[in-house]
Amino acid sequence: MNRGKRRLQSRITPYAPMSTDRLEALQSFHEEDPDDAFTRFALAREHLKRGHPDEALAHFEALVEEQPGYTGTYYHLGKLYARLGRPEDAKATYRAGVEECEEQGATKDLSELRDALMQAEGVGLG
Q1: Torsion sign over Cα 75, 54, 2, 18
Q2: Same structural domain for residues 60 and 121?
Q3: DSSP-based three-state secondary structure for 33
Q4: Which residue has the higher pLDDT, 42 or 126?
Q5: Which of 59, 78, 83, 125 has its C-alpha lying 20 to 30 A from 89's C-alpha?
Q6: Do the Cβ atoms of 74 and 113 come closer than 8 Å?
Q7: If you ran DSSP here, which 8-state letter would residue 18 be given?
Q8: How far, in Å, CA of 17 to CA of 13, rounded?
């Protein structure tokens, strides 16, 4: 488990309400360590849960730009682009993620990204 994930789990218990407190805590952690990819990813996901797609988009895009090796981001950024009516950006993001995953040997993320890319390109399996 990486340093950021351990720190985050130790500060936000499972009993913490999914409220402004969680969002504020994540923002505080991000300010303390802006290079922690896990915290930034969690912050983006929390914004999505709260219906703040623009804030989530900014964090996901920054993660892909600043820390392209954090491969889980590509799937979520691509899905968000699709939801925002930006299918070409979604496909480009999936392709970039596939390339990054192949370089890193990240097989789980690679499989998810390939599936998402096939769906985005209309090459469904069913």
Answers
A1: negative
A2: no
A3: coil
A4: 42
A5: 125
A6: yes
A7: S
A8: 9
